[in-house]
Amino acid sequence: MIEKEHLKMLLVNVIAVVLGGCSSSLNQLENETLLPEIDVVQVKEYSEEALKLAQEAKIDVQMINTKLADIDQRLVVLSEEVSSVSLAKIEELENRLSLLIEAFKDLHEQMAAIEVLPQIRVGKKKKTAVFSPSEAGALVTSSEYDHYQSALRTYDKHTYDKAREMFVDLLKKYPKGEYRDKAQYWIGECYYAKGDYANAIASFNKVFEYKRSSKADDAQLKLGLSYLRMGKNGMAADEFKRLINRYPGSEYVPRAEKYLSEINL
User: Fold this and answer.
1) Where are the beta strands (DSSP E) in 23-66?
2) Is 247 helix (H, G, I), strand (E, B) or coil?
3) What's the CA angle centered on 184, arms 178 and 188, to 5 degrees?
4) pTM to 2 decimal places
């Protein structure tokens, strides 16, 4: 009886040990099974997060590149606009300057005419120079002068084709007139304003056919500018140098020197 009880207890202990060992093995196996699964989940989470960050970074880079491309395009457009506006403004200022210089020179010539051609009235005891507004005006105005001024006003309104026709008509009507060289010069200006630099050059060169023309240095400057606009820098430089050498007292010498320095850069 005692042996049976002892055997029974021994069997229980063995079963307990076996079960305990199985349980321990099961727990160990379960732990060994779970550990890799936890690592995979973490790696997956990290991978997804990394992929998300990479995608966001890629989107950010694409957005930045798009914005950079847009800014670059805007800069190109802006540069072209500024360049175009600047050039147009320069052309406009040059035209206005030419008109102002023309008005100044014309006024100077009129004053000189009044000074050297007075109407002398002789009194009983002394000579007295007497001028009336009408008499002074008669010295400096004429139908040719009126025609010339009308053509200049037309030019000033930017109707260059019409102005050119008026200057050409002046040359036909007054082949020996006092404003022939000036009319010829402004024919060149009309072509220049239209961007027809080849005809402008031909017209400016004709100004030199008139001896002692007051527009010679003007024409010389515009020859250089015409070649410059055509991209013929070498020929432009030659014309600017010719201006400096032939007309050292001209008000255009500083401008010619400036253009030369820019060409030589």
Assistant:
1) none
2) coil
3) 155
4) 0.60
Q: Which domains, ranges and CATH numbers included, belong to the chain? A: 132-263 (1.25.40.10)
Q: Half-sphere exposure of 157 toward its Cβ, with a 13 Å CA cutoff?
A: 11
Q: How far is CA 83 from CA 90, 173, 193, in A?
A: 10, 42, 17
Structure tokens at 229: 């606009």
- The span from the CA of 87 to the CA of 75, in Å, is 18
3-state secondary structure of 129: strand
Tens digit of pLDDT per residue, the chain (265 long)? Answer: 544 455 555 445 545 544 455 445 545 545 554 445 555 566 666 677 767 776 776 676 677 677 667 666 665 665 555 555 555 666 677 777 777 777 776 776 666 666 665 554 444 444 444 445 554 455 456 899 999 999 999 999 999 999 999 999 999 999 999 999 999 999 999 999 999 999 999 999 999 999 999 999 999 999 999 999 999 999 999 999 999 999 999 999 999 999 999 998 6
- Whether the CB-CB separation of 185 and 207 falls below 8 Å is answered with yes
Q: Which residues contact 193 (CB under 8 A, 6 or more apart)?
A: 91, 95, 155, 158, 160
Amino acid at site 99:
L
Q: Do 226 and 197 form a contact (C-beta atoms < 8 A)?
A: yes
